[in-house]
Amino acid sequence: MGGDGGSIPGRIDLVRTSGYTFVRNLGGMGYSPNTQMKAADEHLTSAQIRDLRWSTCSLSQEPLSRPIMACRVGLLYNKESVIKYILAKKPLVSMQHTKNLKDFKEVKFQVDPDSRRFVCPITRTEFCAANRGVLVWKCGCCVSEKAFKELMKSQTSQGEASCPNCNAPFVYNPQAFDLQSTTLDPMSHDMVMLVPDHSEEGYLRAKLMKKGKGSR
Question: Fewest Cβ atoms closer than 10 Å to its Cβ: which of 20, 51, 74, 84?
Answer without folding.
Answer: 84
